[in-house]
Design a protein that fits this description.
The protein is of the alpha/beta class. The chain has 2 domains: about 200 residues, Medium-chain alcohol dehydrogenases, catalytic domain (Quinone Oxidoreductase, Chain A, domain 1, Alpha-Beta Complex); about 140 residues, NAD(P)-binding Rossmann-like Domain (Rossmann fold), CATH 3.40.50. The protein contains 12 helices and 18 strands. Helix 5 packs parallel to helix 6. The longest helix is centred in the middle third of the chain and has 13 residues. The chain is globular and about 60 Å long. The mean pLDDT is about 95.
Length: about 375
């Protein structure tokens, strides 16, 4: 069938909107008419080839839409189902079967390979292959072939124009707090970087009864938004020494810290900002091979650092919980969203990474 897709043709280039052909779903796949798709920092890092996903490629991995066709072997999904699309995993390995899908050994190949594992792609343009299956979905398109494992079925009245970002960025930030760090009521959390991931962590920390929610960023508007969403203290890292400020606010260091920036120096500060036996989590995606340093003696005193992917979540369980929390008014992630028509995708990019106008850009498909 014909579809309209946004294609990255060269490293660092703009999205090129063009017609493409999409094949029917194969075994274990469904065809989804995309209603909306969130723009995530990971889309832009792949555009810049921080990760070696082959070009040209259709990106997008925070899609939401309605299933139009079901391939052979799909038993739990039907035509007409409304779904949020999340990350891809094999579903068969020990980690997947243990509820640790985010740490599937096939994760990189399935999400960043640009192809199915057999080397095929469901998208062509003028008879030429276009890399796709990005995060098993490539949702920067009016239609998408999606692996059934990626689909999270939601209610018939679910607001599909809003829910896409739950598939990656928002579940990553919220899951870092709720699934990994699990701060106790009355504890302290420092969040470094308050884009959509960091602000989702702020909202989750408030849900958890954290007493001191300290955020560090350079953007005054983002710091203001963090206050509105539950941060108790804000630090402009360009004006003040974040480490000294956190130590002063917490009496020696935070109980927990989260780095979302993927900047080695900031991660070092985040680790140093937790007290003896404190834990720092890292979620930012840096270019492959990026290294950072730590003071080994500082780590001897029980401090811990933990990396995590996708909030260490089981999407089919965690995303519906976030939806219910949002409906109850306890997780207002809609306040992060700025909507754009799909044809204005490059404007959404500029507002995300240049002007900072958009915290979470969501592209709405017109057809």
């Amino acid at each position: 069938m014909q579809a309209h897709a946004a294609i990255i043709e060269e490293q660092g280039g703009q999205f090129v909107l063009d017609g493409v052909e999409i094949e029917d779903p194969r075994v274990g796949e469904v065809l989804v008419k995309i209603s909306s798709a969130g723009m995530c920092h990971t889309d832009l890092t792949v555009r810049d080839q921080y990760y070696p996903t082959p070009l040209p490629v259709v990106l997008g991995h925070e899609g939401a839409g309605i299933i139009e066709k079901v391939g052979p072997g799909v038993t739990d999904l039907s035509v007409g189902d409304r779904v949020v699309l999340s990350f891809s995993y094999c579903g068969k390995c020990n980690n997947c079967l243990s509820g640790e899908q985010a740490y599937c050994p096939e994760l990189f190949a399935l999400n960043f390979g640009g192809r199915r594992l057999d080397g095929s792609t469901p998208i062509t343009r003028n008879g030429e292959d276009v890399n796709a299956m990005f995060f098993g979905q490539s949702s920067f398109s009016t239609h998408s072939i999606v692996r059934q494992q990626n689909c999270v079925k939601v209610a018939e009245d679910a607001p599909l124009d809003l829910l896409g970002p739950l598939g990656c960025g928002i579940q990553t930030g919220a899951g870092a707090i709720l699934n990994v760090l699990k701060p106790e009521p009355g504890s302290s959390v420092a969040v470094f970087g308050v884009g959509s991931v960091g602000l989702s962590a702020v909202m989750a920390a408030k849900l958890s009864g954290v007493l001191k929610i300290i955020v560090v960023d350079l953007n005054a508007d983002r710091l203001k938004k963090a206050r509105e969403l539950g941060a108790t203290h804000t630090i402009n890292g360009g004006e003040k020494n974040a480490l000294e400020e956190i130590q002063a606010l917490t009496g020696g260091g935070a109980d927990y810290a989260l780095d979302t920036t993927a900047i080695p120096g900031v991660l070092r500060t985040a680790v140093d900002s937790v007290h003896v036996r404190g834990t720092c989590a890292v979620v930012g995606g840096a270019p492959l091979g990026t290294e950072f340093t730590l003071d080994m003696n500082n780590m001897l005193f029980g401090r811990k650092i933990v990396g995590l992917i996708e909030g260490s979540s089981i999407p089919q369980i965690f995303i519906p919980r976030l939806i219910e929390l949002h409906k109850a008014g306890l997780f207002p992630f809609d306040e992060l969203v700025t909507n754009y028509d799909f044809d204005n995708i490059n404007e959404a990019v500029r507002d995300t990474e240049t002007t900072g106008k958009a915290i979470k850009a969501v592209l709405k498909m017109s057809s």
